[in-house]
C-alpha cells in the first residue's frame, strides 16, 4: 500500500494552490487538528494510511469506523413506525391486502418514481392482490404528480385505494378530488412538504411534524420501509401462509439502491446500507428487467454506484423524458426476459435521442446564459427560456449550466401559453425552499422539489419576474457557497502509487456519491507526455511522475474549457493534477481509470 503524501503549508492551501486553473482554492479535506484521528484509525484497525485519511476526512472515528465500513440494515434501519402516519398507512394497506381491494399505483416519471412503484406493485402481486393499476403520468400531457383526469379514470376502472409514489405531497386539488370520488389515498414521498398537507395519509420524512430523522431517504427508501412495516403487520394478522409466503424484501434492495443513487440522495446512515446491500443483490442479476438494462447499457463486470447513476438511471429516465413514461416501471417488474430485452433496447434508443436533444438545447441555453452574464457577472441564479425546448431534457440542461457557471440554474421550455422548467443547485443552496416561496408569493403557478432540484410551472410573461425573484431569494446562499467553494483534497499520490490494489482498498469507504464524496487526490509535479481529444469532447492524457512512472487519465467534457485547453497545449509542462482514481472492466479485464477534476501550475503562479 503506498504511503499518503500529506503536503500542505501553514496557510492550509494544499500545495499552496490559492487559485487553480478553474479558479478554485485547494484545501486539505482533513484539517491539521484531525490528523490524530487518521493515525488512530490506521493503528487501531490496521488500515492503510490513505484509507484512514479518507475515513477521518469524512468524520469517521476509530469507534465508528467498523460500522461505517460494514453498513448493515440491522444496525441502521429504525422501526418504520417512527415515520409520521406510517401506522395509518400500514393499517389501510393491510386492509386492502386482506380484502383483495383494487389498488391504483401512481408514480412519478423518474427513476425514483419507477423504482418506488415497482416495489409496491411487486409486493401487492406477491400478496395475492388483483394486478394493481399502474399509472405513470405523461410529462408533457399530464405534468408532475397526480391529476384529476387520471384519478377519475382509475376510480372508474374500479380502484378503491390510490397510492402515490415520489409525488403527491403538494397535490391538494387532485387528492381532494380522489376523496370526493370515494377513493382513499396514501402518499409515499420525500419531497419538501408545505405546512398544509393534502387530504390523504401522507408518509414523508420531510413533513414539518416528522421527527424520524430520515429526510435523506429517497421515495424508494420510504416505500421500502413502508413495505417492511406492512409485511410485519400482515404477519401479526396471520396473513402469510405456506400457500402465500412472506415476500423476501431484501431481494428488492436492488431497486432501492438504484433509486437512491439516481436521485442523488445523501449516502450516509441508512442509505449507505441500502446501496451496499442493493448492489450485492443486483450483482446476482435476479431481476430480469435490470439484467436486460445492464446488458443494453453495456455494463461489464459487477454493477457499481457510477453504473446506477450514469448508465441505468439515464436510460430509465429516458422513457419519462421523451418516450413512454411507464416503460421504466414496467421493465422493473417484468419476468419475461424477451419482453425485458425489448423494453431495455427501446430505453437505450430513447436515451440516445435524449442525448442529441440535450446537445442542441444546451448550445442555445449556454448562449442565453452568456448573454445574461455579460449584462451582470454577479448573478445568483440563471433563468433561461426557449420556445419548444423539450420538457424532458430541461433538467439535464439545467444541471450542465449549473456545473459550468457555478450558480443555480433554471431551464424553462415554452409551449404556447404555458411554460415548465427545472432547476438544479449545488451544495449550500436550498432550491426547493426558494421555489415554494415563489409559489406563495404568486410569482409562479406551481413549483416544488428539494434542496438540489426543483420544477416550476408559470406563464410566459412571468419569466422575468421569476428570474428577479430567484436572484434575490438565493443571493445570500449563493454568496456563502461561493466563499466556501474549495476543492477538498484527500491526499497526494504519484503515478506509481495509483493502482488497482489502492482502488480496492479505498472502495471500502464507499459507496461514494452525494454526502460521501469519492476521494480526490493530487498528483504533484507530473509532466504531460501526450494529450489528445477522444469522443466528441473528452481529453485523454498521459502523465509522468519524476521517477518515470506513467499514468493515463481523462478529463471528461473538457474540450473548450480551461482544463482541456491546458492539457492539449501543455505537452511537456509540469502540473499539479487533481483527480479521482478508479477501475473499470472492459471485455472482462479490469483497467485503471483516472478522472481529472482540476489543474494547477506546478510553479504555483496564479493561472
Automatic annotation (TrEMBL):
Residues 340-377 form a coiled coil. InterPro entries: DDH_dom (IPR001667), DHH_sf (IPR038763), DHHA1_dom (IPR003156), RecJ (IPR004610), RecJ_OB (IPR041122), SSDNA_exonuclease_RecJ (IPR051673). Residues 381-475 form the DHHA1 domain. GO terms for biological process: DNA recombination; DNA repair. It comes from the Bacteria. Pfam families: DHH, DHHA1, RecJ_OB. The keyword Glycoprotein does not apply. GO terms for molecular function: 5'-3' exonuclease activity; nucleic acid binding. Belongs to the RecJ family. This is Single-stranded-DNA-specific exonuclease RecJ. It comes from Methylosinus trichosporium (strain ATCC 35070 / NCIMB 11131 / UNIQEM 75 / OB3b).
Amino acid at each position: 500500500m503506498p504511503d499518503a503524501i500529506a503536503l500542505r503549508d501553514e496557510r492550509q492551501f494544499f500545495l499552496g494552490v490559492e487559485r487553480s486553473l478553474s479558479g478554485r482554492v485547494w484545501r486539505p479535506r482533513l484539517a491539521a487538528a484531525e490528523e490524530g484521528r487518521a493515525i488512530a484509525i490506521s493503528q487501531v484497525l490496521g488500515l492503510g494510511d490513505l484509507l484512514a485519511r479518507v475515513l477521518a476526512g469524512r468524520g469517521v472515528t476509530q469507534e465508528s469506523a467498523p460500522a461505517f465500513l460494514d453498513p448493515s440494515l440491522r444496525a441502521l434501519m429504525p422501526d418504520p413506525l417512527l415515520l409520521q402516519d406510517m401506522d395509518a398507512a400500514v393499517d389501510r394497506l393491510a386492509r386492502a391486502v386482506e380484502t383483495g381491494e383494487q389498488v391504483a399505483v401512481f408514480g412519478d416519471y423518474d427513476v425514483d418514481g419507477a423504482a418506488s412503484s415497482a416495489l409496491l406493485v411487486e409486493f401487492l402481486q406477491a400478496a395475492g392482490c388483483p394486478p394493481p393499476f399502474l399509472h405513470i403520468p405523461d410529462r408533457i400531457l399530464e405534468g408532475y404528480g397526480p391529476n384529476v383526469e387520471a384519478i377519475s379514470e382509475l376510480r372508474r376502472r374500479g380502484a378503491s385505494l390510490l397510492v402515490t409514489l415520489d409525488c403527491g405531497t403538494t397535490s391538494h386539488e387532485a387528492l381532494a378530488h380522489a376523496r370526493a370520488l370515494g377513493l382513499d389515498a396514501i402518499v409515499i414521498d420525500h419531497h419538501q412538504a408545505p405546512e398544509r398537507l393534502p387530504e390523504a395519509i401522507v408518509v414523508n420524512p420531510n413533513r414539518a411534524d416528522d421527527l424520524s430523522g430520515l429526510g435523506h431517504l429517497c421515495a424508494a427508501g420510504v416505500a421500502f420501509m413502508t413495505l417492511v412495516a406492512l409485511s410485519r403487520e400482515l404477519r401479526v394478522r396471520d396473513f402469510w401462509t405456506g400457500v402465500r409466503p412472506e415476500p423476501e424484501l431484501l431481494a428488492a434492495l436492488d431497486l432501492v439502491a438504484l433509486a437512491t443513487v439516481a436521485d442523488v440522495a445523501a449516502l450516509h446512515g441508512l442509505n449507505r446500507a441500502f446501496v451496499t446491500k442493493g448492489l450485492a443483490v443486483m450483482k446476482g442479476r435476479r431481476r430480469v428487467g435490470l439484467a436486460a438494462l445492464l446488458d443494453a447499457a453495456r455494463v461489464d463486470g459487477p454493477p457499481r454506484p457510477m453504473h446506477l447513476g450514469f448508465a441505468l438511471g439515464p436510460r430509465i429516465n429516458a422513457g419519462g423524458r421523451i418516450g413512454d413514461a411507464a416503460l421504466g416501471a414496467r421493465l422493473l417488474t417484468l419476468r419475461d426476459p424477451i419482453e425485458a430485452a425489448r423494453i431495455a433496447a427501446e430505453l437505450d434508443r430513447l436515451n440516445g435521442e435524449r442525448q442529441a436533444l440535450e446537445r442542441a438545447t444546451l448550445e442555445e441555453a449556454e448562449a442565453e446564459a452568456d448573454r445574461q452574464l455579460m449584462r451582470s457577472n454577479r448573478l445568483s441564479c440563471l433563468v433561461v427560456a426557449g420556445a419548444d425546448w423539450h420538457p424532458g431534457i430541461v433538467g439535464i440542461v439545467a444541471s450542465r449550466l449549473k456545473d459550468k457557471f457555478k450558480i443555480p440554474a433554471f431551464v424553462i421550455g415554452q409551449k404556447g401559453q404555458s411554460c415548465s422548467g427545472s432547476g438544479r443547485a449545488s451544495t449550500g443552496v436550498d432550491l426547493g425552499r426558494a421555489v415554494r416561496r415563489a409559489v406563495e408569493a404568486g410569482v409562479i403557478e406551481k413549483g416544488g422539489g428539494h434542496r438540489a432540484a426543483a420544477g416550476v410551472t408559470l406563464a410566459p410573461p412571468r419569466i422575468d419576474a421569476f428570474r428577479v425573484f430567484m436572484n434575490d431569494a438565493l443571493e445570500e446562499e449563493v454568496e456563502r457557497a461561493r466563499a466556501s467553494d474549495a476543492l477538498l483534497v484527500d491526499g497526494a499520490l504519484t503515478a506509481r502509487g495509483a493502482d488497482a490494489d489502492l482502488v480496492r482498498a479505498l472502495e471500502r469507504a464507499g459507496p461514494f456519491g452525494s454526502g460521501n464524496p469519492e476521494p480526490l487526490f493530487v498528483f504533484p509535479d507530473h509532466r504531460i507526455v501526450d494529450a489528445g481529444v477522444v469522443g466528441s469532447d473528452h481529453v485523454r492524457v498521459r502523465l509522468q511522475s519524476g521517477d518515470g512512472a506513467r499514468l493515463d487519465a481523462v478529463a471528461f467534457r473538457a474540450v473548450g474549457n480551461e482544463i482541456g485547453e491546458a492539457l492539449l497545449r501543455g505537452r511537456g509542462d509540469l502540473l499539479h493534477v487533481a483527480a479521482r482514481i478508479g477501475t473499470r472492466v472492459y471485455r472482462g479485464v479490469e483497467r485503471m481509470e483516472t478522472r481529472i477534476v482540476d489543474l494547477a501550475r506546478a510553479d504555483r503562479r496564479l493561472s
